[in-house]
Records
---
Amino acid sequence: MPTLTNSAAQIPTRILVVEDHPIVRHGLIRLIEEETGLEVCGEAESIAQGIEMLDQTAPHLAIVDLELTDGDGLQLIRHIKANWVAVRILIISSHDDQGHSKAAMDAGAMGFVSKHEAVDHVLEAIRAVLAGTTYLSPMVANKAVDWFG
Amino acid sequence: MAKQRSIESDEIREASVYAKRLNAVLNTAIDAIITIDGSGSITDINKATVRMFGYGRDELIGSNVRMLMPSPYREQHDGYLASYHQTGVKKIIGFGREVIGRRKDGTHFPVDLAVTEVSGFNLFTGIIRDISRRKALEQRLLSAHDEERRFLARELHDGVAGYMTGIGLLAKGLQTRLERADSSEAKNVAELVGYIHQAHEELRHLSHELMPTQIQPDSFVRELEALARQYDSGSPVTCRFQCSDPVHLAVEPDICTHLYRIAQEAVSNAMRHAKASEITIKLTQTTDAISLCVEDDGIGIQGKSHGRDALGLDNMGYRAGLIGALFIMTAPAGGGTKVICTLPITQNH
């Protein structure tokens, strides 16, 4: 199983993108691939495809949307946590309210980025989660004040 | 002599026929017709009054008309009459308005009330029309309006906003690539990324404003606080929320939602049209009523409103009517605008 201890210069960090919106998925892949040390190892638009790609690509990080073509992204998070303990999970979703972010973090995600601010914060979130830090983008953090407070 | 007696007899007969006919007209009317004296005591009613309010004729005649109104209007009615007798200023007499009626069983219902003074007799006649069905229709219209807003908000949020995210990410990726290649085009693409960001923000706000959120009673006060914060932050306008005592809303979510929407519309009007620099949302509760007040220091009500502005004002009034609240919009002497919505606390809330 791959680990995160490999330095980025030696082995690129593999990222799986699970997102049902083709343009968002495409945009994420293009942005990530511009970054040194990051590599998109696979893409999926559904839970089923995501599970298949996990088996095929053994990513270090999975970026997961909460709305997928065949169901709720939370199911995929739980599957990853049960079967791929070392894979870190970053959620990207337009449903950035406290209910959704808490449910995702409780299920095992390490970061949550609102789609409304993904352009400015997704790379920062990827780096933070890969470094082992919990990450919430500003809008998500603002709405989650009660939860943390 | 006999001829004279015969003429009088004819006149009496005619008067009697006329009185019977008039009585028949009054008693077959669908609207309730109530006559009161100067002190508010009921002197006469028609049959529709009995049907509408559920009281027997004997219970009504001689009683004070305030028994047909819910609190707090019930307690205020004697004061209105006294004020009219003292000042001669007509606040409701000669006009029609929507008010709330109270049946014998304690339930409330919306009515159209038109009051006229019977000159020379110190009597007042009220014609009351039950507008429950009309209000139910208006509720359905408003629900359809909300449903359309919800549909548009969802389409913008889930559809168009998704494209905006994707396009923004693609443009940002291109910007990174061009910057790495030291291309002179990088600056132009960075500008493009900024524009996409702005468009996305506007779209997000529009979607948020369009979404008709259902407000729950236990979160109502927090939602009003959040509304004030939303308008206060990031704008030159100061928007405050005041709620001195704990307000406990034991009402249905629909009522909270309508009250919230009235506050939202009033604040939005103050900001966009009245050019206010200070807006205050106040919420107070007494034993009889909950009062929501939005006041501002803007340019006030400027003549007749048109288009969307007028629709906004109508919507506030409709919403208030639907939940059985009294809606008043005034221009205080010191300037600005004051919107007051008073919701009586009743057992059927």
Note: The radius of gyration of chain B is 29 Å.
---
Amino acid sequence: MLETVIIFGLVNSVTLILTAIGFSLTFGLSGVANFAHGGIYILSGFLAWVLLNSLGLPFALAAVLTVILVGVLGGVIYRVVIMPVRGIVLSEVVATFAVGIGILEFFRWRGFVTYDFKIPAIIKGSVSIAGVYVDYQRLIIIAIGLVLAVVLWYFTHHTRIGLALRGMAQDEYTALSVGIESDWAATLSMALGAALAAIAALVILPLGIISINMGYDVLLLALAVTIVGGLESTNGLILGCFILGFARIITGTYFGPEWMEVIYLAAIVLVLAIKPSGLCGKSKELEERV
Amino acid sequence: MKTGFRKERIDRGIKARTDDIFAIGSFKEISYVAMPRFLVIAFLLTFPLLGNLTGIYWQNVMMITCTIALLAISWDMLASVGLVSLGQAMFFGTGAYITGYLNHGFNWSPLLSIPTATVAGAFLCTLLLFPVLRLRGIYFGLITFAIPLLLSRIIEATKILGGTEGLSGLTPLPGLTVELYIIITATLVCVFGFRKMFDTDYGLVLRGIRDNDRAVMAGGINIQWFKTQAVFIAALPATFAGAFLTHHYQIVGMPAFALEYSILPLTSVIIGGAGSFTGAMLGAFILVPISEILRAFGTLRIVVYCLVLLIFAIGLPEGIFHYIQRKYHQFERLVPLEEIKNET
């Protein structure tokens, strides 16, 4: 029982990190709350499916193509949809919200709702760890999640582009005055966020089928962890993912699976009531939020 | 040095006359002020009587239109204190479930259960949103987006309030014409009442909170308390709409928290224009009939909303109402640029 909780809690937490990291990165770097995140996630799944099944590409090529195409799409969404309304928070939210729901409902209308839509696992089979059977796909999720977290940390802290993006997030006017172009940085952050959503979709979706409603769930999950951990804070995101990931598995194991979703509401309400800036929120965020 | 022209926008003469001079001179001036309001009220009050002409289908569409208009007005009210809601379904669903529970569980008559659900639902929603009221802008939107989705999950998980099947067999309301009159009256009262309220000092404080909450705080006003009141007032039309439509359909279920009740009001406000309540109502009266016509296309409908939403959010951010209002009150003329240079 305890081993199950630990192993699946870990898998769940890393899944959450993968799901939410794109949303959190875009928000942290450019302040755009990308409500199209769930839509982009599902879009990547279907795009990969089409590349694999209709065009018959090998998995590796299809995966790389999906990530690149979705990344470009993210940049295009920023240029076409968000840039004209940049700075008007309501319009930004409404525009990305509309894009996300538009994508999801478009696929529903085209009939992408049957059980045929699956992405194959990278390696099939399972292994027994401490008496618990875990399939390789879940281990791959953990590996990719951890690698991605490290790479992103290195990217945002030790590369010129990453530092430029963070400068933009901290103080837009100062960043402009040292020659960092605001729209270019935001486009890049949007593209990165979308590409991360695509990676998440490629790794997580093989665990089940691609379903439209999952798009809404993904957005909800991303919101929940970022609220609990504190927006704009990567450490907070990871902490939030581990708290919610384990909380979910523990309630699922000991109270029954129907309570797994309820735990999010409880977590959000608790965090907001006690510390509205999130667990790792700093005073700067507090100033903006309260 | 003739470089070109620019557009100048000035008030019409009749607008200037009816605006400032209190004694209204002629019938023309009176109708300039009163006619738009009068036409709207007259249309809405005669509509239920035209049942033979319009058919029962469009009477039902009117019902839904008014419901969405109420939700949109509620959204606009929240937005006027700077709270952006992405989950109007929360208010709608709360009102719907309370009236359903009272009627199903305790056999309360709709005469009693609808008002109770309106007030109690608004109170409950205010209580639920109270800890979040400190949040600004986007953060509040994030929470309101999550709450209705999670509430429906809770109902699904705990199987309270009828679980996935909902509560059915509720008491029907007496006839479509009466129902229409009730909801139309409610819509008109909300629109004109809220507009009136925003002309008073109380409304001034609320708008001040939206424009610059620090300044209002510096003025010694407890903005938390005013925001709480505003949420309660804003929740009333929405919970009423939920409670009322529940008795109209005689069933309440998880669709009461559906995304549609969050998106449609939002789209209405974006189309009509925020900040004036009339804009919200106008948006609903444009959007809902169009969406009924599109009903044959299934979920493509929602894709169409999203496109409309995008076009309006980017192309005409002020909304149709403010555009019409401007054209009604003002006219444009070309002014040579040279002339302006001489002035300065």
Note: The two ends of chain B are 16 Å apart (CA to CA).
---
Amino acid sequence: MTAPVHLHALDVHVAVRCQDAALAEALQIVAVDLLSPSSGHPVQVVVQCTGGGPWRVRSPHLDEEAADRSGALELLLTAVNLGVVAHTTYLAVHAGVVTRSGRTIVLPAASGTGKSTLVAALLTRGWSYVSDEALALEWSSGRVRPYPRPVALSAWSSTALHLGPGTAAGRDQVFVPRSLGAAVDWSPGPVTDVVLLDRTGASTAPISGCHRQDVLVALLRRGFTHLQDLPAAMTCLGRLVRHAEVHRLVLGNPRTSAASLEAAVLGRTRLS
Amino acid sequence: MEDAICLLCPTPEGGLSYVRAVATEFVVVNAGVTAVALDGRATLLAPGSTDLVLLDERATTVWALLAQGQPSRVEDLARFVGRQAGLEPEDVLAAVVAVVQQLQHAGVLTMRST
């Protein structure tokens, strides 16, 4: 085994041990924003990868085999994410989060909805990165905590956003925010906008208002850790929604959708 | 987490005879109910439950009266709601009973005869 790669996110410490030094190095490159500044913290999750072809990845939440190194990297990232989400003590909701000019946008959505693609599109337009996976909040204060895991995009999304090649991870390409021209916002401000993503095309307007009750329900339905204390989660998210502007965005071309959203949120049109 | 309770629901289970029987019942909000009101619509969570109860604007008016602690009798509740809507109490009684009945099923409140 190579020296463990120590990662830290949402106050969860993960140690990843790999037999394959090249795989460990690839993990450190793509998970650079999660690298722990010190290994002195107690490790809550251990992820092990044995073999050098095939590769077997084992963690408390995953036990799978990959035939190639990119598949192994995808499994490692998945295992780390599952460990973080399972062990974090924050109120975590499945959502993308970006910031700019004092605005913090939350995009609650399930996997495969286009959330990460829209996040990446916004990053290429100058927004800062908080997460493409989770809105994480302190339960009592509602303060937003960053979870800057690498952005995972499908080949279709990479092409649609005119991106160069990222690092192959299974069927996806992963990108560190820096490679998209973005920085991580380590101290994001309060949530100012929540955007429900609509793929039904039921509305002709690209972006419209929606009812705050629908937004509250969407956030609760996407919760990772809300069942730790559901009444508190409801109260915390209710407070967030009450003070945020709420929108429904019809997803089309991700670059156009990002421009529409940016214009609505920042109050100006900057189509490109 | 998808069920919505709507004051415009038709006659509650049990028909009009049930409505008349329930009109004199007392209603008590259960302890530990979590409520979040957003833009005139309340979202409720009964203690120990993981199912959200979504109220529309009209059902929220019933809930708001109950949350304030009074009136506690169903027919008085209908009188309050009717006054707010500019309607006679008997015109809204069935709808109020439907809301109360569904809130009871959701574990939000308890009905009792005394």
Note: Chain B has four helices and six strands.
